[in-house]
Amino acid sequence: MSERHSTERPLLTRARIGVLMGGQSAEREVSLRTGAAVHRSLVRRGYDAVAIDVGPTLSQDLRDRKIDLAFLALHGPGGEDGAVQGFLETLGIPYTGSGIQASAIGMHKVTTKTLLASARIPVPAGTVVKRGEKVSSATLLRAEKLRWPLVVKPASQGSTIGVTIVRKPSQWRDALTLAHRYDVDAMVEAYIPGHEVTVSIIGGHDGSPLVLPAVEIVAPGGFYDFAAKYEKGKTQYLCPAPVSAAVTRQIRMLALRTYHVLGCEGAARVDFRITPRGRPVVLEINTAPGMTETSLLPMAAAQARIDYDELTERILESALTRAVALTVRQGK
How far apart are CA 151 and CA 165, in angstroms? Predict the structure, then answer.
């Protein structure tokens, strides 16, 4: 810890912060990179932060290391779906980001989509095929009034894991098998042509969310898959996104509405497709956005003149807000 940091700017908290990372999901490696970057940032700022690789001994690790607050750097099932959030609440440990309900809804794309559609937020047309259900592509296309290509993906995964763009009937079974490897529910949606754009949101100093500049993602082959996300040089990012002022206003409004409809807190990221006619469609929300060197949230924050360390500290504020609420509930 540098003396310059500690004397120039008071810390938000003297509490010991556990940066929870890793876990056992398919996104473990990405989570470890996010967690390591967050841990380095908190230490640079002068916080008492320790890195914890989440496993079966998490409860003992939290006690042994005397953790007061948890900074969640977990991705995927078990860390982003409300499970660890509920566990921490039973221990009385405040944590960053969204609560149990918003995390669970945001992780399950089918539930998210149902909720957003009920709020008149545009989402892709589609349906769900359960593991073991026998349905031909022809039957599904006819019943759901869809046409090729389709997008098939697991309902509860991130980082484009298990996702296939299905362009012809011969790819249908393999796409379902891949999606069902990760989830009992496979989402089948209309492929939305156009541009991929994402809008990040972080909690504001005054309690109101701050909408960051949009980022357009130009991936090789037009598919923002796992390699395109995490291998440097694979993808081009345009920030702010080169879309019209009208579309910019619309996606900012839709992102904020999505954030509020789900009841999110802290940082979140809403992913869109913008059709050739300029119509935005919400694909999904990420309630625990990545914080790696190639992640979209830090990129958008930098465009808003918020550097990585300040961004980390702003996310930390969501845990402090939760700590106050916990104290009130406990009558302390």
Answer: 5
Residues 183 and 330: their CA atoms lie apart, in Å, by: 37
78 counts as catalytic: no
Distance between CA atoms of 319 and 183, rounded to whole angstroms? 30
Q: Is 313 a residue of the active site?
A: no
The reply to whether the predicted model has a pTM over 0.85 is yes
CA end-to-end span of the chain: 32
Does 259 qualify as catalytic in the annotation?
no
pLDDT digits (tens, 9 = 90+) for 22-49: 999 888 999 999 999 999 999 999 999 9
The active-site residue, picked from 25, 98, 159, 318, is 159
